[in-house]
Amino acid sequence: MQLTMENTDLKLEYLSADHTKGLCDLYKGVFQKEVSEEYFSIKYGLFDIDRAQFATVALENNRIVGFYGSFLTEYCDYNKKESLKLVHTCDYILRKEYRGKGVLDHLYLHSLKRMKLQNVDFVCAFQSVQTYKVSQKFSWVDGLFFKRFHLPLFPKKVTQVLHKLGTEKTLRKRLEKALNPFIVKQELDTLNRHPEKYTQKYDSAFLRMKEFCPHYLVKIEGCTLWLKYDSHISVGFVHFPENGSAEKLMSALKKILGNVGIHELVFHVQDESREFNLLSESQEAHPSFKISYLRLSDSKVAFEDVRLNFMDMDIF
User: Fold this and answer.
1) Domain range for residue 137?
2) CA 103 → CA 58, 98, 215, 269, distances in Å?
3) Strand order through the sheet with 146-152
4) Are strands 215-220 and 223-230 parallel, antiparallel or unpaired?
5) Number of domains forming the structure of the chain
6) Does residue 314 sit within a domain?
7) Verdict on whether the full-model pTM lies above 0.70
8) 315 within some domain
9) Of 125-129, 160-164, 289-293, where does mean pLDDT reach its minimum?
10) Does residue 92 share a domain with residue 222?
């Protein structure tokens, strides 16, 4: 697709493996951070040549100047008899000189066209402040937002000093040593089933798209958690057993991780979920990600029947 605006010729293409190097250059130019080509290849499942791609890149003179990132996921009901096709949108990246010209709108609409052709049921997102504004512009609807719970582990000022000293690798090793006795092998897909809800299918293909950063699956106080460390510890998934206690879990986590040197552990859970109700009994809830969506099919399933976890998000 060729697009002309304000004397600028832009070519829009759906994401392919040929774009990864250019995306690295774009990422560095916009965020002043370096990522590898493998980051985009894994995150968007480009290792699977049969996987449908819905992300769009904008090129000028074969140079990538903008990117609308989105990836297809499958959700299924409790008995795995019915499924939904959801596209998660995530990266909105545009070089400074192209902003304010409607380029992102064209990127979005280009991706949306393929979503409709491929019979996607919903497109949705864990929204930032800026992406939420974009979604409202195109009449997206609010879903159940996320809430976060903070568990302080170590003095923040000391952690900040440690980061300045470049101790990230040391802190990660200390974290892994502390977690090692609690590491388990367990199928998250089995734990992620909820009656009357559609949940992300945690199959091997989906989990492979999470391999761009280390994760830790642990079982503590009978609770199963999937963790990620990136300046702080994030909980992407938590499962409480029938008689599980959030208060006991928090106490155990503080005891296990309190001397590692990492400032805090943060839960992000969807409002009105069982996990939210348990955590809010003893912890203060804070606003987290806004969730919004756009229906694309005539499916009888309501988006309110879709259950989300933080690990469904692209950055986890």
Assistant:
1) 2-142
2) 8, 7, 35, 33
3) 215-220, 223-230, 232-239, 264-270, 146-152, 286-287
4) antiparallel
5) 2
6) no
7) yes
8) no
9) 160-164
10) no
